[in-house]
Design a protein that fits this description.
Length: 283
């Protein structure tokens, strides 16, 4: 099988987990390659997500690494064996790879937790709101490129609205709810969309009021995605250099701690719903 030129974030993560197991066993890539009748280059490609690896090969690697964590081995084997093309693959070559990676990560997540400060979360946005955001950020985009971005964002909602919805909890700062990315009607429609998602049980929403004392988390925006096991959780944050996927345990702990701190500064879900309802009348 030819090496992948552009591995997905999920494929890269699988390779990274295999590298962690090898390093924990104290083995060099060339030593493992010799055991498997392979080459160091092939092992490097597997651990970089560039080369595919079978579930059977993963179990053989785990045996060589003396890994006895059956749950982890099964989870990694499942990642390798899942070759289903998702709806996001329709946008390959149309949208940046990171857009596809985010949709794929959400699709496989056991739960989703998100903190947003300046914009309404993508999973809750209306098409008019999303269009206004994309147009402002990239005013040079022609309609042929703008339309698929909006469409892709709307299709991401299937993860919380489908037949088997993923539990989704988000904390939104009042600042994000008040900003008019377009006009008054777009803002009101957006707030009503959030209320509808709450009422239908698709999202648990908490709001941080602007007058909340002791909140210094202006840079706290992030998403945390639960994996099949805690050690396979994933986080991602938008940075000036692009979206950064996070899988190191120390960093994941920081994200979990950050979420708990922000949660303490937010209103309870019922109070948050009432807050948003009042805001629709105020706007």
């Amino acid at each position: 099988m030819a090496p992948r030129s552009h591995p997905t974030a999920r494929q890269v993560r699988l390779g990274a987990e295999l590298r962690k197991l090898r390093e924990a066993a104290g083995l060099k890539a060339r030593e493992v390659a010799a055991l498997l009748n392979s080459t160091s280059a092939q092992m490097s490609h597997v651990e970089a997500g560039i080369a595919a690896v079978s579930a059977e090969r993963i179990r053989r690697l785990a045996a060589h690494y003396a890994c006895t964590d059956e749950a982890l081995i099964d989870a990694l084997a499942a990642m390798a064996g899942d070759r289903t093309r998702g709806w996001w693959d329709e946008y390959r070559g149309v949208l940046p790879q990171v857009n596809l990676d985010v949709a794929e990560a959400e699709h496989h997540a056991a739960f989703l937790r998100e903190v947003v400060i300046t914009h309404v979360p993508g999973l809750l946005q209306t098409s008019d709101y999303a269009r206004a955001v994309f147009r402002y950020m990239r005013p040079e985009l022609p309609e042929s490129e703008l339309a698929p971005r909006v469409e892709h964002r709307m299709r991401r909602r299937a993860v919380i609205e489908g037949d088997n919805p993923t539990p989704y909890e988000t904390i939104i700062h009042e600042f994000a709810l008040r900003i008019r990315v377009a006009d008054r009607q777009t803002s009101i429609s957006q707030l009503r969309r959030i209320l509808a998602e709450i009422e239908q049980g698709h999202a648990t929403v908490r709001v941080i009021p602007t007058d909340q004392d002791g909140f210094a988390g202006a840079g706290a925006s992030m998403m945390y995605l639960g994996g099949p096991l805690p050690q396979l959780d994933t986080g991602f944050r938008d940075t000036p250099g692009g979206t950064m996927f996070i899988d190191a345990e120390a960093q994941l702990r920081r994200l979990r701690t950050l979420f708990r701190k922000v949660e303490k500064a937010s209103l309870e879900p019922t109070a948050s719903r009432d807050f948003i309802h009042h805001l629709t009348k105020e706007l």
